[in-house]
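[agent] plan:
  1. take the single chain provided in the ticket
  2. run structure prediction with default settings
  3. attach structure tokens to the ticket
  4. add a short note for the reviewer (M.T.)
[agent] executing step 1
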Amino acid sequence: MRKIVSLSFVAGVASLALDVSADVSIREGTIDLPSYAISAPEKSPVFDCKWSYQRARRSIYPYALNDNLYAEKSETKAWKALYLENEWVKICVLPEVGGRLFYAIDKTNGYDIFYRQDAIKPANVGMNGAWISGGVEWNVFHHHRISTQMPCNYRLVKNADGSATIWLGETERRHRMSWTIGITLRPGNACMEIDGRLVNCTEDSNSMLFWANVATHANPDYQIIFPQNTEFAAYHAKSSICHWPICTEPFTGVDAYTNHVDVSWWKNHTVGNSLFAFELPDNFIGGYDHGRDAGTMLVGNRHIIRGGKFWSWGPNSGWPTKILTDARGHYVELMVGAYTDSQPDYNWSAPGETKVFKQYWYGVRNLKGIKMGDETFALNMEKTAKDKLFLAVNATRKAEVKVCVTARGRAGNGSAESSSAVAARGRAGNVSAAPSRRRVRERRMNRNALVTGAGTGIGRAIALELARAGYAVGLHCNSSTAGAESAAEEIRASGGVARVYRADLSDTAAIRRTFADFKADFGRLDLFVNNAGITLLAPFLEMTPEDFDRNFAVDFRAPYFCCQEAAKLMKDQEGAGNLVVIASNNAYCRFARASAYGSMKTGLVKMAQHIALEMSKYGIRCNSISPGWTDTKAARLDEKETTYYKIPLHRWVQPEEVGKTVLFLDSPAAASITGTDIVMDGGARLLSDKGEKYGFEG
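[agent] step 2 finished; step 3 output follows
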């Protein structure tokens, strides 16, 4: 028996809700700020300088260019200010400066969640000239929007549930597009809710975008936080790509990045630069000041809030300290964008169309960094010694936090109930991580699955997702034995059950042996996933009979007889079973060099439908899944670059997403689904008739 070792760890749990009955205060007032004046536009104003601004034409009519800026400060000015406050956060918004969220203070530690300016000091940066840094700027319809320095409409609303909302908005005159932003605080909740509404009021299609420009204070201790599984960062328009966080290649032509530089740290950027989280893999980005042990979390549904990036002038730049502020120092921009994931990449709004989105922002503290989170919590976990683990959690409202830790192959669990004392003082409590066999048993669903081609890529991801859901899993492989064995070991280390079966599925005798061995090991088969296949591409005139036969044997003949053997096992067992066939969007798209491969994938979709019809009388369902470009380890970076933003959703499929779709098809929610193909390709099939323009010709 394997020796069980307990891990001791420290958990700091912050509960930021004590008195949920306390209302949120909302009021209108003023704030006194040293201010630099902007001169009136020229008598004969400039409307179009023929400039390009972030790849958009800088045509600003009917607005005039505000580029005449005074160097001298005027008298201190009393600006109209809108205040929103609960027991945890205080917010100030300036409706006369474009509705900018001027500051937000974490009242637990006095930390400025956003960069707080000491003066209104415009510089000639924006699309319309005058622009200031700091707080949160609403980049609506285009970057550093024309009206960013102009007054906007506002309304203060006290909601029935005790929450309060500052509503901001305007109809911009350039395209007659309308925008509304709502900033809501709820009682007992440290999270700022941002509701966006973008409306095309016209009878024309118009270009549009949305980016919230969130500025935070920067110093040598400041680190930009992208999700843990972010592999690459990209520049504007994806014109340059580097590994994240350790850069090993030139980025934007800067050779200094090649020396394995950790580009997540602000201090390591010798020049001004933008880094976008390439194919943002999770629903958050953030920043953390390790010197202050505090930071900022930005959260949104990554399928809508698709863009996450940071911009820095660089530590050596004098711009932010001389031109844009009097004494506040450097900042970085943590920017989150809706509907697009790169700033030059505009979206389209149809006549009369309304687009809506939601974001969540909050401050964090005493975490020593951020590993994951959502709108309710932020978590960090660091190994501090051989048998010590630091674990800290911030919750935006009162919550019970439960933790399960795996210690050297055995599962442990612990729990820590949030308390006000922990929140107020940032203290840490102890959580036991003793292993629990009972917890492992609870995770088992008493369902058994067999996955072919489980050594790599999609098949491996499917097997691991099934195991996480409690399935006992058989992993078939042929050439990828090491990958299948490592996946099986990972499953067993987490308390699951896994067996590896090696077989050449082009041999029907080997297929029969595999299913017989599975039945001997597991007793019954509840779910069979046919994933194994090969990608054998060749021009039509160059396809040899040998290659065709090999392609056919693995990609069509083998799935047919594997499904047959699986159905035989399921036919007489109580509860029948479920068959899932992994096909490809090649069944719908026309690709060069895929005449054989694509035909067989089309055949798999039709095969699944026929099986579904015949096997329905036995209670056996059969469906197919057709992924498009999938982000496996075998995927080439150059392919990503050429296809990424040609796909309508601007993303590749993640292998884990296919695994979760398999889980759905085997769930009670899918009990009426059979003979159906689920296409997962970001919409690529919708453009396949456009041919080479969209990169589908090879």
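[agent] step 4 note for reviewer: Residues 1-21, 408-444, 689-698 have pLDDT under 50 and may be disordered.
[agent] ticket updated
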